[in-house]
Amino acid sequence: MKTLFRALLLVPLALAGMQAQAADYTIKFSHVVAPGTPKGKAAVLFADLVDKKTNGRVKVEVFPNSQLYNDNKVLEAMRLSSSKTTGLMAAPSLSKFVKFSKTLQTFDLPYLFNDINDVHKVVDSPLMDRMAAGLDKKGLRALTVWDNGMKVFSIKGDKPLMNPPADFNGMKFRIQSSNIAASMIKNLGGTPQKLPFKEVYTALGQGVVDGQENAWSNVYSKKFHEVQDYISVSNHSYLGYLVVVSDEFWGNLPADIRKQVAAALEEATAANRRFAAAADTGDRKKIENSKYAKVVDMTNAQRAAWRKATAPVWAEFRNEIGGDLIDDVNKLLGR
Ligand code: SIN
């Protein structure tokens, strides 16, 4: 994604110092999480920066909490939209691109990343452009990646999830629309159920599912911990977002405007990483200090057992994702 920003920055700055005026373009930014999360905050900051950098010529309206669309619907709406003056932008999780990209599934491979630093090595490398390649042919322009954080597992029951498959047997887990997540849950011994994000709290509360996997800020802001008994700090995969816009809208923007919007996005991306790092420790603490789900750390041996149980997922998806790509990501991560 860095490549994209670099290309845009070649266009000369034309808007600085212009008088404020009525918006010529509107970007509707739709997302599904709470405004106080790393994505929610970055979206609002992006809107503010765009307003300043374009002197009001572009207005970004942010719709949090699935108010406008859920993640799957927003991608369809984006692909169908043809307005040159009103564009749809969104930041669905990387897992939700499964219908449009096989290569982006790399991000879902369990235990690919040891931590967020590993994630940034990949996202900031040319491999990211390789993984997002081809989305433009589906009507989606990939702009940047935003963090949430590493995922943890929550469960309602009399003990935390620690030993696969025994602790997962007979348990149903909500997952995103990711085939890799589905396979991962099966390999751990549980049953996966794909559900939209906005249905998760109710599904957990009513026992439609027993548990779920998510980043700390989503667990806290959507109160999942209030209807769960334990959270295992599994850090088994990454929850991050691909910020996308309708390819047609983006291509039709005047080059100077596009450059200003891209510059705003670059600043918002840097801020998003800070918001995510703060949420990772802050929201975990808030959950630990609450009277609800108990947070349970895992030992290296326990984590190794999860890694071993989920290893077959890599073999299952190797051809679909592309063995060369997986090998190159591993090489970049020093494996
Ligand atoms: C999100 O963080 O945008 C939603 C993730 C999920 O569906 O669990």
Characterise this structure.
By secondary structure, the protein is an alpha/beta fold. It folds into two domains: 2-93 and 134-147 and 241-281, D-Maltodextrin-Binding Protein, domain 2 (3-Layer(aba) Sandwich); 152-237 and 285-332, D-Maltodextrin-Binding Protein, domain 2 (3-Layer(aba) Sandwich). It has helices spanning 2-8, 38-53, 71-80, 116-123, 126-132, 179-188, 200-205, 216-221, 247-252, 255-288, 300-321, 323-332, and strands at residues 25-30, 58-63, 86-90, 140-150, 152-155, 172-175, 191-194, 211-214, 230-232, 238-246, 294-296. Helix 2 packs antiparallel against helix 10 and helix 6 packs across helix 11 (300-321). The protein is globular. The relative contact order is 0.19. The model is unreliable at 5-18 (pLDDT under 50). The protein binds succinic acid (SIN).
Short description:
The chain is an alpha/beta fold. It has twelve helices and eleven strands.
CATH superfamily of the largest domain: Bacterial extracellular solute-binding protein, family 7
How many helical elements?
A: 12
> What is the oligomeric state here?
single chain
Which CATH class of the largest domain is shown? Alpha Beta
Order of strands across the main sheet: 7-6-8-5-9-11
Largest sheet: 6 strands, mixed
Runs with pLDDT <50, length 5+? 5-18
Which architecture of the largest domain does the CATH hierarchy give at level 2? 3-Layer(aba) Sandwich
Quickly count the domains: 2
